Structure formats: C-alpha cells, structure tokens
Amino acid sequence: MLDPTHPDAVPPRRQQVWELPEIQPHVTEYQYRTVACPDCGALVTAPRPPEVPPGAFGPQVVAMVAALHGRFRRSNRELAEWCAQGYQLPISVGSVAHLQQVASAALEPTYGEVQQVVRAQPTTNADETSWRQEAKRAWLWVAVTAVATLFLVHASRGGKAFTALLGADYAGIVGSDRYRVYNGVPADRRQLCWAHLVRNLRGLADHHRPWSRPASDLLALTEVLFGLWQRFGTHQIDRPLLQAALLPIQQAMWEIVTTGQHETNAFGSFCQDVLPRWDALWTFASVDGVEPTNNAAERALRPVVLWRKGCFGTQSAAGSRFVERMLTVSATCRQQARPLLPYLTAAVTAYWAGQPAPALISADTP
Predict the structure, then answer these.
(1) Which of 311, 290, 337 is nearest to 76 (CA)?
(2) pLDDT per residue as tens, the chain (366 positions)
(3) I need a labelling partner for 47 at 20 to 30 A (CA). Which of 117, 119, 228, 345 fits?
C-alpha cells in the first residue's frame, strides 16, 4: 500500500521544455591608434591583429549567412530580414551577398580536397540537371561516392563537363542513367540505372499496345531482381548466391530484349538502346559498393532543383562557385557526420588568418 505522506510515494512526472534565449549579438570595438613619428612626422596606424575579422561581421555570421542561403535556400532579402528580426544584426542585402563570397573563398581549398578524394574513389554515381548562369543555360553536375559528394556548375552537358567533374583519367565505376555522355565509360566500369529502365518499361507497358506484353514481362523480372537485391542488402543471401539467382533472370531478359530489338516500334527502340550496354546492367552483381540504381545521385540533386526554382540560377561565375562549393561541403559534411556550421566557421577563421582550411574528410579515407 502506498504511503501518501512519503514525498516519493510515486515517481515524479517529468517535463522538459526547450526554449531559445533572446539573441543579442556581441559587438566588439577595436581601436587602432595613429601616432606620428617623432623624427620624420610620418603617421603610423596600428595594424589589425590577424585574429580580428577584416570587416563588420565575424566568422559565425559568415557561416550562418552561407548556410541559410546555400544549404537552406533562403533568398538574400529573406536573409537580411531574418538577421534583423531573429539576431538583431543590421545587415544589408549587399553585405549578405558579400559574405557569401567570403565563405566561397574560404571553402575553395576544401572544394579541392573533396575533388581529389572523389576522383580517387573506386565507385561513383553521376548525374546532372539544368541550371542558369547570367540568364544562360548551364548544367549542375554531381558525383556521389561513399565518403564525399562533388558538385560542379558548367556551361556544357557534354563530355567536357563530365571530364571536368571526374577528371580525364578516372578509373572507377560510374553509375548513371543512359544519357549519351556516359557512353565513353567502358561497360566494365559502368552501372546503368535500373530505376530509369523501370520507368521506361512502365511507360511502355501502360500503352496497351502489342509491345505491352514483353514490357510487362521485363517489369515482372525486374521485381524479382530488386527482391534479390533487397535480400542481399539485408544479408539474407551472400554474393555468390545473388549471382547464381540472377542468372536465370539475365537469361530470360536477354531472350526478350534480343527478340524485341527487331520490332519497329517503341519497344524495339528500347531494346536497341539497351543491348549495346547489356554488360553495364549487371556490374552491381559482382562488384562491392555498386548499386543497381543511380538513386544516390538523384537524391543529391533534389535540393538543387528546389534551390533552382527559388533563385532561377546564379548571376555570375562567382555565384556559381559559391553554389558548387556550398553544396559540396554541405553534402560531404553529412557523409562525414560533421556539423556544417562549426566547419564553415572554422574555414572562414582560417581563411582570414591566412591559414589552410581544416580538413573535411577523415585522414583514414582511402
């Protein structure tokens, strides 16, 4: 029986309430005295110490502005208004744009670091989406690896841009869709995206035409394929068993596609497009780290698409450099389990002090 007189007769009810304090910026004034030389009368002003920011805002303000624009897609006018209302910071739209360029310059070494790491990885997923720079058509490319992600804004959607992204001598395996620029990658170093194939097949199967039946048959086989891949991913089967189970699926698909290539219709065109790249459909079955879809690259581009809808691209080459560097650092921070704001702050502090940016990627990364 409970004793009502005991203060702990029942466990206490707990409630935790999280609240933000009223934010007031810290303003530090530095005074630089000017004195006259007693011999020649020349005026000499005390220099700015290296740890003091060169302008009116500190590294944490720069990091916040860069993150809110480059990661959370707030416009410059919204940023200026939010800084005034939320942080009591009197900052103009022009200063917001300037601080983004400060962050961009601070992240230039980090961008180079990520570029080197991405180009050294054994596998990558690549994709591209439209962009605009100075009201002209451009493209934003992405290369996603297990440890880092690299973005690039380029005027071209062709091979020159793809080379700029991964380098001319990239020797790893590239996961991609069937866009022609990736055809320069040998089939044994390529993985075609099965998700794109499924979308194509669904479109063919839904037309209720003579080719709907073979398209539906291929769709049914892909469902078995993805079921096997899911079992492999959850360690229900090992790789040798995965490969053995895929053999009859490959054979059945091969028969359908080789027969369909002779058709003079949409399904025949589909088969004619797939057959030359047949080996590239199955790289995932034998190579560790290769996925059967290009979903990693498509997911990386989703924030880009949302940003593009809001800002309509960039107004200068410098703006594009900020976009690709911020996207690169933001995505790689997530992969490296590093919080974005502290890293941006450290990079800006190092930049102003004339020191190298802190390494973003673990030294243990191959």
Answers:
(1) 311
(2) 556 666 666 788 899 999 988 888 999 999 999 999 888 889 999 998 888 999 999 999 999 999 999 999 999 999 999 999 999 999 999 999 999 999 999 999 999 999 999 999 999 999 999 999 998 999 999 999 999 999 999 999 999 999 999 999 999 999 999 999 999 999 999 999 999 999 999 988 886 777 788 999 999 999 999 999 999 999 999 999 999 999 999 999 999 999 999 988 889 999 999 999 999 999 999 999 999 999 999 999 998 998 888 888 899 999 999 999 999 999 999 999 999 999 999 999 999 999 989 999 987 776
(3) 345
Helix (H) or strand (E) holding 151: strand 149-154
Distance CA 118, CA 101 (A): 24
What are the two backbone dihedrals, phi and then psi, of residue 12, each rounded to the nearest 5 degrees?
-70, 145
Closest CA to 289 of 211, 353, 327, 232: 232
Domains and CATH numbers, the chain: 120-183+294-335 (3.30.420), 194-285 (no CATH)
Q: How far apart are CA 208 and CA 92, in angstroms?
A: 59
The bridge status of strand 136-144 relative to strand 149-154 is antiparallel
Distance CA 216, CA 196 (A): 15
- Could you give the count of Cα atoms lying within 13 Å of 319 in the half-sphere of its Cβ? 17
First to last CA, the chain: 64
Q: Which residue has the tokens 């058509």?
A: 137
Length of the chain equals 366
As a dihedral over the C-alpha atoms of residue 167, residue 128, residue 297, residue 217, rounded to 10 degrees, the angle is: -120
Exposure of 104 in the CB half-sphere (CA atoms within 13 A): 16
Alpha helices in 120-265 (DSSP H): 159-166, 194-205, 212-233, 239-260
Strands 190-192 and 173-176: parallel
Residue pair 286/31 in contact (Cβ under 8 Å)? The answer is no
Other CB atoms within a 10 A radius of the CB of residue 50 amount to: 10
CB 250 within 8 A of CB 282: yes
Cβ proximity of 347 and 62 under 8 Å: no
